[in-house]
Amino acid sequence: MTGPQTHTVLSVSGLTKDYPGVRAVDDVSFAIEGGTVHCLVGENGAGKSTLVKMLTGALDPTSGSMSVNGNEYTPNSPQDARKGGVATLFQELHVVDELTVLENLTLGMERSWFGFLVKSELEERAVKTLAAIEPSIDPSARVSRLSVAQKQIIEIARAASSGANIIIMDEPTAALSEREVERLFGVIRRLRENDVTVIYISHKLDEIFELGDNVTVLRDGKHIVTKPLADVDGRSELIEMMIGRTVFQSYSPRGTVGNKVVLKAQGLTTSLLKDVSFDIKEGEIVGFYGLVGAGKTEIARALYGADSFEGAVDFKGKPVGRTPTAAIASGIALVPEERRTQGLFTNLTIRENIPVMNLPRVSRGGVFKAADVQDAAHQYVEQLSIATSSIEKHTEKLSGGNQQKVVFAKCLFSNAELLLLDEPTRGVDVGAKSEIYDIIKDLADQGNAVAVFSSELEEILGICDRVFLMFDGHLQEEIPNGPDVDISHILNVVTGGQESVAQ
Amino acid sequence: MTSYSNQTSSAARFTSFLRNYYIYFVLVAVVVLLSTANLDQFALFERGNFLYKRNIINILRVSAPLLVMAGAFTLLMVSGYIDLSVGSAMSLSAVVYAMLAINGVPFIPAFALTVLVGVLLGAVNGFLVVRLNITPVIATLITLSLFKGVALLLVQDGVSAIKSGNFLKIPGWFNDYGRAKVLFDLPAAFWVAVAVTLALIVVQNRGKLGKYAAATGGNPTAAKLSGINTGRTVFLLYVIVGASAALAGIARSSFMSLGDPLSGDGMELTAILVVLLGGTAFSGGEGKVLRSFVGALIIMMLTVGMLTIVPAYYQTLVIGSALLAAAASNHLVSRKGKES
Amino acid sequence: AGEGKRIAFFVSDLSNVFHQSQASAAEKYAMDKYGAEVVVFDGQADSAVMTQNVDQIVAGGFDAATLHIWDAEAATPGVNDALDEGIVMTSFFSPITDTGIPTARSDEASVSFEMGAQMATAWKEAHPDKPIVMVQLGWPNHTEVNSGRTSPFVEGVMSVDPGAENLGALDSSKGQEAAKQIVVDLLTQRPEVNLIYSEASNLTVGTMAGLSQLGRGKFEDGKPLTEIVASVDFDAVEFDQVFDPNSSLKVSMGLPPLETAQGRIDLIMDVLDGNVEAKAEPAQEYFYKAYTISYWSMEKDDAQDWLSAQFGG
Amino acid sequence: MSSLTENIPQSLQREKMSDEGFITSLVVIVAVALFLLASLLVPNFFQWQNVVNLVTNNWAVISLGIFVSFLLVSGNFDLSVGGIVALSGVLSVWFAQSPDGANALSSGLGMPYPLAILCALIGALAIGAMNALFVVRLGIPSIIVTLGTMMVARGIAQVITQGSQRNTNLPDEFGFLGNLTMFGTSVKLPVVLMLLLFLVAVFVERKMVFGRITYWIGANPEAATLSGINRSWHITKLYLFSAAVAGMVGILLASEFKSGFSNRGTLMEFDALVIALLGGIAITGGFGSVIGMFFGAIILAVVTSAATGMVLSPDWQFILKAIAVFLAIVTQTWAVARRNR
Ligand SMILES: Nc1ncnc2c1ncn2[C@@H]1O[C@H](COP(=O)(O)OP(=O)(O)OP(=O)(O)O)[C@@H](O)[C@H]1O
Ligand SMILES: Nc1ncnc2c1ncn2[C@@H]1O[C@H](COP(=O)(O)OP(=O)(O)OP(=O)(O)O)[C@@H](O)[C@H]1O
Ligand SMILES: [Mg+2]
Ligand SMILES: [Mg+2]
């Protein structure tokens, strides 16, 4: 798999990073071979992003050293790193909405003549790379008009075309559709052929096996192992290295699904959705599955009153008011798609985040009961095993997966009887994922209804009792989950295959 | 999917057309309003009417200080920053310029030195904001106070301005820059404002600085992570604003034939007003130099052009309403586009 | 002569009661007596605005103008332009350098001097043992205010008591609240201050409010207790206090809006009729009297008459 | 790690002071330090009466600062308050003036004073409602809206007073509210009202749901909406409260000076913004405290008071103010940077 002569392009030794109260990266040493795809895996909060930030000069290591091509490497800024041939795709989106796609692609890398911009071969390369991944994006369009996935693609194209010989990608596929992921992999393989080294971080283990040459596992900030993926004995070994135990999830029919319909949606129609009708029963977990843009989020937001729509939604026999406030009041809660912009109050602490969706529970006469707020925070930190040194930690200082758990905690706190979970485990590690699945199942067992909106088929088939397949705003089909679901049929339906009418 | 995006793009094109050009509609509306308001008394284009040449020249002439500042101020606001000290910087420059002139320094060196002072003042702001990391509003409020204090300090106690006195006399060339007819009966100060604006339009659309300003204002983290030195961008913009404030001070000073340490008072508000009227977002990222220039023309037309039509105490109300109306129509238009 | 003419009538600051009354008096008087239309230009207490207003005279198609501008130099080019167009130009308050146009002005300096002298005398009489400490609230950086009010006032006090201490002028240009704050802060830290010249009626309201907050501002039956206050722009509000034997506001400069307005309009008509030269070297000056309204030197009834004559009240 | 924390009682587990508390106490310390410094430099500065003056001289701007701060925390500006102060003051005078005055500026509508106050307040609320309408309903940036409504409010005041003031022909009770002294001291009613309002604001901010909601909205408006917070209504309430307070300030000032002056409160909206920022409230929203705002006002007041006591000429006053604000803010940024290192 690797070429005949291997050479180390990047190595770190004794690398350590301390945050107040946390050692995020702890004495990590390993080497990366040139022209490979080197995967970095680990649980949420294992220190992957922190490691990446040090490699790109966004953070200074507390101690330890790094070297590139055998030379000592101490980048002070991403620009420094870029000069050293290291380009990065960060976990959070970093595009400028106010500029055009093309302007974003060359941002920070423009050629200029006395301060005036001039065309460069870089521009052409960027446009070509973009076209290779997603030809439908117009380079002259304003980025503000693009979807999250499209923005992510722009960042990928920018990093891939930057001419760097080391490219770091921190969860690049979290928001991408399978088609886009395939195209991205094509680009990454081409980069590798051109002797570019890719450091690839993802929680999706299939991707790791599909793409990676070598893997480095981090746990609790410590380096566990670095070895060729060929020597890894399947998912279970990788998972065990990551979290120190094995996890399995497969669907087992639950006997608690009641017969009482709690939610009835009739003829939901928006600019994207077309006459969508369905119902959800007490104690049931339903899944909505479709590609990006199929309309899953739109349904979730409509049920929750976050967007306006035509049609009717009844919950427990009564129409639901058309604002989130009303939805919460009638017992519906939403875990939104994007945790940072829609779910969290990042500059507030965990304690301050949790009670927001159910204020009456922690206040009397408009005045907070301080002890209750504290207790609630402690309770959920424990229940969801949120990795933090204190409930007073600002949520922006949590790792991505732990942030997602805080959003989850917020929703659980609302005591909802119907939970709408939009991409509930995006960016969540396998360990935490199964914890979240257990929580979801528990909730359903207690008689609550849950709707999972996900673009991960594995997730859908792992926990849902019934699955709705979406394509282009239409609810195409409803199938019961079970051991004999036809996956190729599902994929056919959600990609617009016509021949399926009824089963 | 393609048909969907085609549909929006024609609606979107209409929207962006309106958004880009609404300020010119406002301009036309104001001109029509002002020139018809007097119709019962004066025929169009006659002496005393708004569209009378002399009046237009007057308005453009007194507008020079605001016009010369609008562009630089826009770029700064596009980058998400603000400078409340422009009025004081302008006053201080006016005082410095008059002091140089009254002490016998000829036009060119006096002009150049004053612009240099403006650059320095801008650098002070840049230093406070970029280096010391002080919130722009507070930092430039500090310098607002500081520059004003220094300007007053330079003028003798009990006297309101640097002006001809017993011993020193303002030289004869002094008010040529702001008043003498150079081209189309307009003075150099106006043409300098036009030139500065044109230069800044090019910088905004073709220059690295313009793009970096937009990136810095639109998404500072992204800009930094892309390797843009946002600090240097912002510093440079403050310097440019400082220099343009100095040009404004020179224009005002030579128009008034004296160096008044209070002559720029309140200019920061007018500048903000103009830039906002031009559709620049306060949050940064968006805004166009030319639109602010037109915004400045509108404000000056309203303040000066209305004088002979209604008592001056209607001015605040009219300008405030104009700002609200412009903002409302602008935003309503762009919102409708988004929803369809 | 003025039938159908348009006159530009400048005032430095329309928010000032004196100028407000002056402006409305001028509108009425010009129309009634000459059939002329007056357009008021408000300088908004801003030199730049005043200057840009001058250029509107030509552009606005006026036949005549009476200026009120603080920095006369600034008006010179505009005035010369207007003269070239044959527009009748006159000035109020300050002569416009090098233009030779006739100027109407109030003689403020002598009133300020007299007020200072009266206050010093009264204080010395009541408290021979307490040295005079004076302060002025107004516009320390203003040439005309300085020469017409601040300096002559100080000289007036000094003429009675050469040993008097002058703390100086404090900037109260922000108005009533600023004046009140200054008085409160200053007199807390400098309780010995006993002569206060508040250089506008508007500021006097703040000054008196500040004094009352500190438990000062009182006379006892015509005798000063802690301080004496002088004001400018005597008006109906000040009338009660000046003639109240228990208030420390005792003198005020009476600027006659009616007289001034009529004088300014008449001067223009005189130029139009050729009775006064449009330009002269040196410029011709016409003085309008400013009045010393004083508890000590004026009868209450006279003050009442003056008020109703000048403000039409 | 968790085994370590388990033994510690919960009350101790609350880490070091929050950033907010830290900055607020820093502002307080700077204010006190400046006062002491001024006491060293200015004779007679160190006295109780002077401390009282710092508060009594600033009741108006602190009152305005309270809701300006709340709005700032919620991510919105309110620059209209200065205009509202002028408008409500002028309205209260105009409504109360008897209708038989000799000229336009001395005759009003002749309402009984309480009714005049009520109507003036309604006028103020109308501006607040306008703010809410434009910001919440139309989604126009608050800085543009409130700059516009500030001008509209002041503009109306100027038209009513013809650019000047109305101060004649007023009923005797007009001056009552603004000059009512309390508890036998020289402290007047407006100051006491301000202090009350301030205490309530601190309680609301720290302990009440209403206050917390303001922070949530400022920290992340979209997340707040999706968490069931009625953002529009909350912002609307804040603008209405702010306008009501500004209206009351205007009415009280008009009463104190017995005049409705169209230029009253000029730039007061800026002063209110400045003390809020100086007090550590983040211009980006979601962070800060009205306590900080209060002491931000005190910092400025100390400087003004010292400058007045020294009878400084305007030039040195401006320079001194610049230096003091600079020191205050640099201390803040420096201390926070050190702490977060
Ligand atoms: N700015 C910060 N201040 C304090 N602690 C931080 C900060 N950023 C990260 N941490 C902590 O450092 C640890 C490592 O976080 P990091 O973001 O590197 O994890 P990660 O492996 O990328 O996880 P994920 O897969 O969830 O993104 C976590 O415990 C996190 O709480
Ligand atoms: N034609 C389009 N052009 C641009 N953006 C689009 C288009 N269609 C959908 N989007 C955006 O893509 C996002 C995804 O749409 P939606 O949320 O309804 O689908 P989804 O099935 O939930 O997809 P996802 O997997 O991204 O959550 C939406 O935010 C929408 O604004
Ligand atoms: Mg991460
Ligand atoms: Mg979605």
TrEMBL record, chain A:
Subcellular location: Cell membrane
Keyword DNA repair on entry: no
Entry GO CC: plasma membrane
Protein name: Galactose/methyl galactoside import ATP-binding protein MglA
Species for this entry: Ruegeria atlantica
Taxonomic lineage from the root: Bacteria, Pseudomonadati, Pseudomonadota, Alphaproteobacteria, Rhodobacterales
SUPFAM superfamilies: P-loop containing nucleoside triphosphate hydrolases
Every ABC transporter domain range: 10-245, 257-497
Alphabetized GO MF terms: ATP binding; ATP hydrolysis activity
Segments traversing the membrane: none
Record's bilayer topology term: Peripheral membrane protein
Pfam family, one: ABC_tran
Keywords associated with the record: ATP-binding, Cell membrane, Hydrolase, Membrane, Nucleotide-binding, Repeat, Sugar transport, Translocase, Transport
The EC number(s) this enzyme carries: 3.6.3.17
TrEMBL record, chain B:
Keyword Phosphoprotein: no
GO cellular component labels: plasma membrane
Location(s) in or outside the cell: Cell membrane
Transmembrane segment boundaries: 21-39, 59-77, 108-130, 137-162, 182-203, 234-255, 267-285, 292-310
Keywords from the named record: Cell inner membrane, Cell membrane, Membrane, Transmembrane, Transmembrane helix, Transport
Membrane topology, as annotated: Multi-pass membrane protein
Pfam families: BPD_transp_2
UniProt GO molecular function: transmembrane transporter activity
CDD domains in the record: TM_PBP1_transp_AraH_like
Listed name of the protein: D-allose transport system permease protein AlsC
Higher taxonomy: Bacteria, Pseudomonadati, Pseudomonadota, Alphaproteobacteria, Rhodobacterales
From TrEMBL, chain D:
Main location: membrane
Pfam families the record matches: BPD_transp_2
Transmembrane segments: 21-42, 54-72, 79-95, 115-136, 143-160, 180-204, 238-255, 267-287, 294-312, 318-337
Membrane topology reported for the UniProt record: Multi-pass membrane protein
Keywords associated with the record: Cell membrane, Membrane, Transmembrane, Transmembrane helix
GO MF annotation terms: transmembrane transporter activity
Compartments where located: Cell membrane
InterPro entries with a match to the protein in the record: ABC_transp_permease
A GO CC term assigned to this protein in UniProt: plasma membrane
Source taxon at top rank: Bacteria
CDD domains: TM_PBP1_transp_AraH_like (cd06579)
Record-linked PANTHER family: ABC TRANSPORTER PERMEASE PROTEIN YPHD-RELATED-RELATED, INNER MEMBRANE ABC TRANSPORTER PERMEASE PROTEIN YJFF
Protein name: Inner membrane ABC transporter permease protein YjfF
Upper classification of the organism: Bacteria, Pseudomonadati, Pseudomonadota, Alphaproteobacteria, Rhodobacterales
Gene coding for it: yjfF_2
